[in-house]
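TODO from last week: model MFS transporter.
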Amino acid sequence: MTSAGAVSDKVLNRVLLLLAPAITIVVATEFIVVGLLPLVSQEMHLPLAKAGQLVGWWAFSAAVAGPFVTLVVSRQSPHLTLIATLILFAIGNAIIAVTTSFDVMLLIRIIQGAMLPAFVSVGASVVTRLAPPAERGKGLARANIGFVLGVLLALPAGVALAQGGDWRLSFVVLAVASLPMAALIAIFFPAIPQGEAPSIPSQIGLLRRSTFLANLALSVLLFAAMFAAYTYLGAWMEGALGLSVWSVTLTLFLFGVAGLVGNVVAARIADGAPLRATAIAILMLVASINLAALVQGSIFLAAIPLALWGISHTASVTLSQVRVTLAGNEAPAFAMTMNISAANLGIAIGAFGGGWLIDQEGVGAIGLAPIGFAVFAIPLTVFIGRNVARRATPTPASGSAHRWSPP
């Protein structure tokens, strides 16, 4: 006779197996553009900064509209939300692949950006409902592998697909991949009872909690530090290491492989001390970026710092998702979408700050901006930890409520 726990584990594993590739497709749609901007700019006769709006407006839409979309879909079936979003992305990517209008492309990117937080957060809410309370962080980290793959592999995949000069092929691939994924979810995603979703006022109530807001601020600083360097990683490999385009593509893929190690490590510690682990990941990230920046012309000397960079980069993404979702565990879907909004805001700030410093000092200064963001991020982790410790009490109920805080 099969136990209820074994059945629950089986259902959770099926959910995670379906969510990982689905989230990869959706997240890759955001980041694949980064490696394609020069080709888009050239074909559509646009300044590079104008083409860059395809990245900036997506991030802005995710940051501003994403939370409102999540509040709306939180009352709907997760099954329906996941399928509808994948179909919407398939249609949008197909249109981008054939349109000659930049304004149409921009509108589609804005719509897709608004849907991204809802898609990821709905998946996260299903995981938190199915996972045992003591393993919710681990479950979220496993679900986050799709987010990680989308972030780390989109850039090299886009560069590889566009080697013939056709940037539209990337969007054809994404459009085609979305449809069978939607069909698989329609067929195999378990029929999970809707349950009673948190009320909209209770979800918004998270934004009145200083500790939750501080966690969001930490995510902004963390992603700013990450993407102040990561946005320009390909350009740095070409400029500082003298790699060819194909060598850059291969190195970026290996960077992503190292990132998977970071996700595994983060999954193991996510339920224990995500805040303390975040502080360690920030320090490791900044150190590895600047060690790599010291290397000129030798990929062999840069290999270890790059591997550590990939590990800490991915661990930071995973820990951020877990940390904020557990901090807002009364409304995990809304907490997740607010973290994605914060992450996109941090990406925009980091890309601008890192780009400005590189314009001033050259691509060798790729590690300076992350230092600046880390200077503010580390004290914030201390503030959050002290605030959580101050609110904690020795009673069993309180210990359970704050079980995720750093020891």
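Done. The chain has one domain: 4-401.
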